[in-house]
User: Fold these one by one.
Assistant:
Number 1:
Amino acid sequence: MTSTAPNALRNREAAADRVSESARLDSRWADLERLRSSHPMMDAVIEEQQGRRIRIGDHWLSDFASCNYLGFDLHPEIIAASERAVRRWGTHPSWSRLLGNPRPYLEIEEQLTELVGAPDTLVLPTITLVHTSVIPVLAGQGAVLVDAQAHKTIYDGATIARGGGASLHRVRANDPGHLEETLRSLPAEISKVFCIDGVNSMTGNAPDLPEYARICREHDALLYVDDAHGFGIIGESPTSGHPYGRRGNSIVKYFGESYDNIVLVAGFSKAYSSLAAFLALPTSLKNYLKVAAPPYLYSGPSPTGSLATILAGFKVNAAEGDQIRLSLADKTRRVLDQISRLGLRTLNTSGYPVIEIPLSHADDIDAVGRFLFERGIYVTLAAYPLVPKSEVGFRVQVTALNSDSEIEQLNQVLSELSERFDLQHASQPA
Ligand SMILES: Cc1ncc(COP(=O)(O)O)c(C=O)c1O
């Protein structure tokens, strides 16, 4: 080692310190950074898991922060399929998809296309990669319109599109009229894409898809929907007996819509407990994205075990999915009923298993989180700027594997919490 090496190392460390110092000074992130560095429910190390019980340090908690809604992460057939596939194909395909597709990719796309009832589907590694690579391709030099409550990764994709020459427009949430107004203000001849969440990751509610689809079709715009939290949960033919619908084939089928002018994006990393994402789209667009969307050409593929767990997940979904969804809807209903009995406000008006409970005072988030942690309940803290200050609180996610006694424990702790802290009330204006 030369004598300059320690100096070079010191310089690099000093540069890294300056970067983290300037991040600290960006006050937008200050609340989140404070929680991240000090709160037991952020950046936590999970030492052990038994069902939906997790151990952090020596503290066991009931996990209500999991996105494994259907419990496929612990399903014996799905676990076994992963091992078989790894023995057959090795741990990782390694080729980018343009170079080589192990057969399971084709089987997934074939079965998925049938499940979601779309013209075709394309599997890529993650939704984040889909948004950041596909939104710019779809927008080109035209316009990208983004719903105000859309997921951060959609905004990232839209920002990249803007860097490539598209104009960027924010559309007020739950306001189809504002979408129509914005589309009318744009030149007819340019390409237009409107991006929105399906089942929203914070409110747990679905948008009025038929109305948004109607407006987009009328203005020759593409409706680009990210249903990360709806795929596997909601699906075709909802009734009062099957409130989530059947087959878990996502928001377009839930509303009985066609795929005209709609590109659906969803992933397997939530309800399917795997690692891959997909687009439902026309075959011509799929073929174009195979050469124009960087992840198909350049990114590493999903691990073999993930491909196998998706295929096994389809089988379990066909055999047991509707029963699992009924049980999930019932467990979610019990939590929502308790929230309603306590007179508390939640953003969730849908009955889907994503339940955010806002606080009256955003500054209470630290203490509320510590109380929940001490009482053995693990949730997602919804801190600013992840949500607007008026919606700072915590998000409970119910999964089919949360036991009845865990649901009772959660309901009991919510009751104690409402006595100690100032939570927003149902009658309170948002
Ligand atoms: C609505 C939504 N979109 C995208 C993502 C990111 O998905 P992925 O992990 O597949 O990149 C998430 C993950 O939390 C999400 O909730």
Note: The first helix runs from residue 5 to 25.
Number 2:
Amino acid sequence: MPEVTAAAARHPSVPVDPARGEQVRALDRAHVFHSWSAQAKITPMALAGAEGSYVWDYDGNRYLDLSSQLVNTNIGHQHPRVVAAVQAQAARLCTIAPQHANDVRNEAARLISELAPDGFSKVFFTNGGAEAIENAVRMARLHSGRQKVLTRYRSYHGGTQTAVTLTGDPRRWPNDWWSSGVVHFFGPFLYRSTFYAQTEQEEADRALRHLEETIRFEGPDTIAAVLLETIPGTAGIMVPPAGYLAGVRELCDRYGIVLIFDEVMAGFGRTGAWFAFDHFGVRPDLITFAKGVNSGYVPLGGVVISDAIAATFDDKVYPGGLTYSGHPLACAAAVATITAMREEGIVENAARIGEQVLGPGLRELAERHPVIGEVRGLGVFWALDLVKNRASKEELAPYGGTSEAMTTLLAALRRRGVLPFANFHRLHVVPPCTISEAEAKEGLAAIDEALGEVAGFYEG
Ligand SMILES: Cc1ncc(COP(=O)(O)O)c(C=O)c1O
């Protein structure tokens, strides 16, 4: 266990029990098969409890959760209103099959459709984000009568077969044995421009021209959908330049293509708005969501369906379904989460922390640490693009891999009482939307010190 030098503090309800921690780790290694991992090469951290922006291990060490786990605990850990709602629902009605009408499922769907633009009356519930993608794509294909889906390199859409095939990161490579109908293209990303652009405007224009050419050469009449993470998350938090999403909308309208915005990671407050597309005034035809809808207290995802697409299935059977679609415990958690987020100004807090604390704080770190090549993000959704050299922009770790520099950085953060989220050469700063100004500053101070420990890896 690393020695925690800062922010170590006991939580009264989390007993310190190192022996239990050892046992939890041992049983995990004996019986639990982990996602995306070589099983013999991992040493999962055993966590005993959590509250608000913090988690605790069995040794009594407290960690500021700058990961929101997998960028899902938007409302923070153990929010009392969500915990109480799940408990009350469990006492009242734990489960009910999807073919029956249910009050809490109705209310979750009503609240979600109220947050979406006008003309999105219906919600199809799934157990998580990947299934939301599976079903959105199925709806788009059946609605359009077309087969292909265009999606971006530098994206993640989930681990099930269709979703991983649509993904544009290395997790697709070993799974890519049935990719018929999926075509990847490049989105705008000025810092590492594919289009030799010098300005955001050039990047947006050229990325749109590239997309239109891809559509023309693939055959517009064969394309069911364009699927985009509104703001790509795990792939690097690239906020799209002005005009890009509106341009994609125009292309989809011109060629009769369904536009799907994947809001699984960026939605429900993460960017300081309910949906990330709210920042851009562009509406899709289908919206996928999961994670922040109920902060993952009980697994839930889904598709918010525009009325035109929903009408396709008024008289025609929708050929898809799940035993737990609209599970009452998950829906009760969503109702309580959305209600608490509204009443407690949690989305506004995420916007304010981004504008006043994390954005300025991270940019200030970039002035002092040359290893930070670029700071990107908004709300509580930030990425530090870490480089060996600012001129060449060579990444601090290779694409799809890690490096001594990155493992040193992550260990330095843990030693300072921070739970980080990293992907390849990037550090993502993605705390709960409820994070306070003092907690955000505590995180910035730890990142500042930890970056000092990797200064020697900078080669510029
Ligand atoms: C943008 C996006 N889409 C889809 C998914 C898949 O969601 P899940 O892991 O709930 O299946 C993720 C997960 O990280 C995601 O970030």
Note: The pocket of pyridoxal-5'-phosphate is lined by residues 70, 128-130, 133, 156-158, 229, 233-234, 262, 264-265, 290, 301 (CB under 6 Å).
Number 3:
Amino acid sequence: MSSLKILVIPGSLRSGSHNVRLAATAMAELVQAGVDVTRISLGDFPLPIYDADLEADSGVPKPALNLKRMLGAHHGVLLVSPEYNSAPPPLLKNAIDWITRVRERDEPPGHVLRGRPFSLASASAGRFGGARCLMMLRLILSGCRATVIPNQLSLSFADQAYDDRDRLKHGADIDMLNAMVRQLIDVAQQMRQHD
Ligand SMILES: Cc1cc2nc3c(=O)[nH]c(=O)nc-3n(C[C@H](O)[C@H](O)[C@H](O)COP(=O)(O)O)c2cc1C
């Protein structure tokens, strides 16, 4: 059987982003576990803010179709999201909204999300590490009938969480990362076998 394929999507475009950094850390763990990992930037999938009139006039933008196909080509997805005012940032929410509007062949809306394993992580320089945005993301994705795995990682005080070799330095963070990665792999493997 070919390698398990996992897609990693950071929810920030910022240079020096804590979430892009955490996505890279998680990616390294996944690679070490033998997974075939693709990390993308949502900057390569530019999308206007969702507008039903725009959709009616010009259809779903090509980057949304590309993003949907990218998801469809992977057995599982890891989202690594900043928290903006207790919620996921517009960049990520808007991408999810557009993905749910793509319909290829006779698929129902949001088909690509259904049953697909997702794990969630966040990083913030604050005490809660973006945990509130993960609650909302969990709700949003569950509403789209994705399989959101229980283990997650919210990295508090992200600006102080790494050592000088760019590795997570606190045991609790490392344990949360390992548990999340392990569970994503297990669930994605199980669901792949049932496909
Ligand atoms: C509009 C806005 C709202 C924010 N709200 C929160 C928040 O609710 N909780 C939090 O921990 N950080 C909040 N932050 C701080 C972000 O966590 C911080 O900017 C973080 O570095 C963004 O992620 P990034 O480093 O991956 O770009 C907010 C930042 C912005 C710009």
Note: The longest strand covers residues 117-123.
Number 4:
Amino acid sequence: MDVSTALRELFALQEKDRELDQIKAEMEKLPPELAELRERREKLLDRLTELKEQLKEVRREYEKNDLELRDLTQKRSKAQEEQLQAESAREATQYENRIQQLSTRIDELTELTLPLVEEMERLEADIQELEGELAGLKPELDRLEEANRERIAELEKTYAELHQERERMAKAIPQRILREYETIRRARKGLGVARMVRVGDTSFRCEACHVQLPTHVAQRVYQGRTTVRCPSCGRLLWRGEG
Ligand SMILES: [Zn+2]
């Protein structure tokens, strides 16, 4: 196979490679409505975690107060019982003072604890609302995820078929040229071989980078004895069909 023929085959192979690139890009592109819904779900989940964390803290504080309140109430009951059995007025007064102290502390603590109960109720209601919202999102999200999976599976199938075809085409191209093409393609964002385009009667430019080619370069491309690269963008030059 002469170089010009190999380059023609290579150019056709590049068309396949670009199709494959496109399919890959399609696969990675998330449908906007799915992306949006996933983002909403993420936000709701973050908020939910935050609220649950808050609830845990408030509950912990509530339980601590509650425990102390039980303890204080128990102590007060005991003091009240003991007061009844006081053997002197002085002793009764001592119990009375203790009961007073305990009552004051119980009142203070109760006052601190009641807002915690309200806060827990508020947080629980918010959590329930968020969970409802999340549950509401689920059917549509599931539907979109499933559609996306099907879309990707379909693209994968097309990709595999095209890739097989591409490999078949690659076998016909000399290894050296193919490897040179692949290296350039990786470095030059998708294009490894470019057509030469005639400008006027005697000039040519590189179709990929549009730079006008020196005459001796164009001549060498036409002679087709070896591969020639565009002096500007470095891509392999194919003389085209014309
Ligand atoms: Zn070029």
Note: The chain has a mean pLDDT of 95.
